[in-house]
Specification:
The structure is a homodimer of 349-residue chains. With 349 residues, chain A is an alpha+beta fold. Chain A folds into two domains: 21-37 and 135-178 and 204-320, Alpha-Beta Plaits, CATH 3.30.70.100; 42-133 and 191-199 and 323-341, 2-Layer Sandwich (Alpha-Beta Plaits). Chain A contains six helices and 15 strands. In chain A, α4 packs antiparallel against α6 (289-305) and α5 packs across α6 (289-305). The longest helix of chain A is centred in the middle third of the chain and has 25 residues, at 220-244. Chain A binds chain B through residues 15-16, 18-20, 23, 26, 166-169, 182, 184, 277, 279, 282-283, 286-287, 289, 292-293, 295-296, 299-300, 303, and chain B through 15-16, 18-20, 23, 26, 166-169, 182, 184, 277, 279, 282-283, 286-287, 289, 292-293, 295-296, 299-300, 303.
Chain lengths: 349, 349
């Protein structure tokens, strides 16, 4: 049993963990371990938004960003997923990860100019959402150590079994900064117009979660149980956050279906959401009826199957400083991502 | 909105609350407020244990303790409840409350001698379980401010709406000592034989919860929903704690039905349980399947009924110092109360 906080990020505490030192979690979980030399990771979401069937322009945009990813200083890992949003638009999001800010910086300007630097064209919207957190500001969690997803693909290894999980508050306790900082949000998001682009300037301690499930290994009975008993409840919670999340501090939520290299749906999905604070995410997860239902359904599922469960679960959670964020939208409808968090009248840059 | 911790018990913190200062609970709750002059409360459980139908000796014992309660320096409030335990014995427990340790001390020795001072007789067991916590070591919570139960009957008043509730960790945050102390348990319970009596000497930071529900005001539809949808799930959780609680730190659990002055069941019940630590109680409440089901059923019930719900809920939770505890058993079976927490071979006093 080891701490989720790697030893080189352990500091003298001014804030306590939520569990006693002898706490023993009831089942195993694992976290991604970076080499100590990694001080920052970058998570960059590049979105294409369109209505109806994908056009040649959509395919071209997707090919364009994939080519950029494959170029010099491109991400160490990327994946792609899509979903249909509350306004009926399809959003295809290519998510890319770096663990070297210098490489990302060398790569980003050109990619950004290509992606959001022009004018809206061909009926498609484009957006860029980037966090570049210090490693003390993020955490991961995996139900199995043998298949990394998302930022964890960049990691040096998976940990052994960690202590800080399977209790409310574990998410916070896994973030190294929680040793000394309450990570309270400061300020309100605002929009800044820059020609045809709109940037959103959010605030200190904005929170991002990507929380995924992979049912590709499940067999008949388990698969049926996941698809019939768990997935609908999960979807209901995701829809609530998408449609009514703002009132409880969820600026935006996307329930994404991962696609393969040819754009075909895989048996992996994830919810990706932007939150005013880690505390707001904690409150929803712990006590909102929609997540209590998800938690209940997941618990029943895992209790029924026990260690034989083939469903894989993971997440990554970041609490970003104000200067670790970048949001830019071009030709997107006004409830896209962090645009949904700001008044519709915007300042000019 | 006020803190659950009364102003005269607020201290410089070395430990943080689990919620930010701007946390707003989604529904109101209330706590008992004692006069600042009250520095300690006493909760004394007097049990009669028998198998089969109650005999004249049972009635006599119950009348005897009631007469003691009515005598000089008797409790400010008491109530009575019964349950059938895992060994098939009926236990009638008279629970008495004081807010003046001098009065309790003046009263207790005689009552104790009468209750457990003799030898087992007439086929009945008797037990005494007492906590006498400093007011910094206990908290209450009520869903409505207009009907006190348990120790709260002694209070000067109910609070206004308090902030620290409706999140996991609220129970701890309402206990004044949590401002500066993790309240970790130290040591293991042991039994000491004193003639025919067995005393249990537990350990620092033992935890007691009495958690009650009152459905006497509910009308047809709500009553049916409580009795059909909530109560069976609650009972299942109570049975789990009673039968299998020790492995998760619950030394003993009693799911009690409150009785009236004539011994007839009322429409009130409570769970009363002894825990190794507040942390163990937190873990069960937050993540054990049996309590997750209770929480889910209660949440669905309250979501369906909203503010019109007539069900009343309350609890009182104490984390007692080692010298604030007293457990004594005479002629009881060996899984009675804290006897279930100790090896069956006992030291002599």
């Amino acid at each position: 049993m080891e701490s989720a906080i790697p030893s080189h990020l352990q500091t003298a505490r001014s804030r306590h963990r939520r569990v006693p030192d002898d706490y023993a979690p009831p089942y195993p979980s694992f976290v991604a371990r970076h080499k100590p030399a990694v001080t920052r990771v970058i998570m960059a979401y590049f979105g294409v938004q369109y209505h109806g069937e994908p056009t040649a322009a959509v395919a071209e945009a997707l090919a364009q960003i994939a080519a950029r990813f494959a170029g010099d200083n491109g991400p160490s890992h990327w994946d792609r997923a899509h979903y249909v949003d509350q306004a009926g638009f399809t959003n295809v999001v290519s998510v890319s990860y770096w663990d070297d800010a210098a490489r990302f910086d060398a790569w980003f300007d050109g990619a950004r100019e290509t992606w959001t630097g022009g004018t809206p064209a061909d009926g498609i919207g484009r957006f860029i959402e980037v966090l570049r957190p210090d490693v003390a500001r993020y955490e991961t969690l995996f139900s199995s150590p043998d298949r990394a997803e998302g930022v964890a693909v960049l990691a040096d290894a998976m940990s052994g079994e960690v202590q800080e999980h399977a209790y409310w508050g574990g998410m916070r306790d896994r973030i190294p900064l929680s040793q000394t900082d309450a990570m309270a949000p400061r300020g309100e998001p605002r929009a800044v117009r820059d020609g045809a682009r709109i940037r959103v300037v959010a605030h200190d301690n904005l929170c991002l979660i990507r929380s995924g499930q992979d049912w590709s290994d499940t067999e008949a009975a388990e698969r049926k149980m996941y698809l019939d008993d768990v997935e609908p409840v999960l979807r209901e919670g995701m829809d609530f956050l998408r449609d009514d999340g703002v009132a409880i501090g969820c600026y935006a939520n996307r329930y994404m279906q991962v696609v393969d290299g040819a754009g075909r749906p895989t048996e992996k999905s994830y919810g990706q959401s932007w939150w005013k604070s880690l505390a707001a995410l904690e409150r929803w997860a712990e006590s909102h009826p929609t997540h209590v239902k998800i938690f209940g359904a997941a618990m029943k599922y895992l209790m029924t199957l026990g260690p034989s469960a083939k469903l894989r679960l993971y997440h990554e959670v970041t609490v970003a400083a104000a200067d670790e964020q970048f949001f830019e939208y071009l030709g997107c409808h006004d409830r896209t991502g962090m645009l949904g968090a700001v008044p519709l009248t915007v300042d000019s840059a």
